[in-house]
Amino acid sequence: MHWKTDPGLYPPYLRTRIQRGKGVGKGITYKPWLKIRDVPSEGTSSSVSGIIVPRPYNLLSEIETTYFYLLERKPSTVDIQEQWPILDIDRTLELCAEYGIRHNFRNSNPEPFTIDFLVTSRNNQGELSVRAASIKTPVDASNPDIRTRLLIEYVWCLEHEIPWTLVDTSKFNKTMLANLRFMRTWYRHRYVSSPENEALFIKNFHLSYRKNILLAEFIQQTSKTMRLSTDTTLDIFRYCTWSNFIDISLQHPLALDKPIFLNRASNHD
User: What Gene Ontology terms describe what this protein does at the molecular function level (predicted)?
Assistant: First the structure.
C-alpha cells in the first residue's frame, strides 16, 4: 500500500507536507514523514545512502539503522520506506477513542501515527507483498504506554491486511551495527560486483579458512593468490559477507585485527 501524491485527498493541515512529497509515493521519490531534524536524538540517528533504492534514508536510532541494514541484505527486499505515516487520520482518531488512547496532535491538528518501516518484498514467483515493522528497544517494547500506541498501528494494519511485526531487537547491539557498517563499506568504496572474482574468493576462503586466523592475515594471503590489491580483496570479502555468500557471525567483532568468526552452521573446521 502506498499513499497517493495528490494533496487534495488529505486534510488541509497535511497538504503542505504532502506537496513536499512527505510520506507519499514509493521508491526513489519517497520522503519520510519524519526526518532526523524533526526528532530529538542523543546522537544515535543516521542518514544513510540506500543500496536497493539509492536515496537518503533518515534512521532515528541505532536499532533502526541495524534493522535497515538487515533488510538491505535480504535478496527479496524491493523497497524500504522509513517513518511511514498512517494518513488515514479519521480512522486513527476513531481507534484512539475506541481504545482510550490520546491521539498525537501538532498544534491543534491531529498528527499521523508513523510506522518505523514499510517493507516491500518480492517472492520467488515474482509477487510483491508489503509488511509493516516497528522497531523498539526491549525496554520500550514492554512499556505499557508505548504498547498501547503500537496497538493502533497493529489494528489499522490488520484492517488493511498489512502484516505488522514488532521486531525482536534483543540481540541488536553496537557490535552487530559496527559489523554491518564494516561489511557495507564495499558500497561506499564503489566496489562493482564481479561474479568470477567472488566465486574464486569464496573457493579460496573455504580452502584456507581456519579458526583464529586474523582477517588481515587472510586478506594478505588471498590477495597474493588472486593477484589483486589488498584493498580490492578486502572489498570482495566485505561484499561476500554482506551478500551472505560467507556467513559471518554478527555477534563477534569484525575487523582486520580480529579473528574471523563464522556462524556455527557455516564452520568449516
Answer: nucleic acid binding
Q: Report how far residue 115's alpha carbon sits from residue 130's, in angstroms, rounded to the nearest whole number.
A: 13
pLDDT band at 121 (very low <50, low <70, confident <90, very high): very high
Report whether pLDDT(43) > 80: no
Tell me the three cell numbers of residue 149: 500506541
This prediction has a pTM of: 0.93
Q: What is the pLDDT of residues 147-193, one digit of tens each?
A: 999 999 999 999 999 999 999 999 999 999 999 999 999 999 999 99
- Biggest CA pair distance of the chain: 68
Cβ atoms 230, 219 nearer than 8 A: yes
